[in-house]
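Give me the fold.
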Amino acid sequence: MFSNKDYTDEFPHNITVTRSSTTIDKTKYPYTDTTTSITHDLTGFMDTPETSEKESYKNMEKTLSRQLYLPYGSDIKSTDTVTFENVKYRIIGDIEDQGGQHEVIKIPLNRI
């Protein structure tokens, strides 16, 4: 996770991160898939992207719905799903160190 600083002013939004993994049991036939999901809560800042950011993603044939800002070092991976206000999003790009100062990460999201 991240340090114990108080981020409530900078990151006022509560989000839920879901991490899913699938295992295949090959000990018997037919093989069976088992998917397990783990959720944890984080505080972040959900932002509406600028038009220029949306255009950049549109040129890459991706739809950018939101930008998520989290404290640097937050427990999130590019394969996770993010839920904010009962709306699910998937990560559509790299998790970027915003400003290169190891303080905030920026994550592009698309609504599922």
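The chain has a mean pLDDT of 89.
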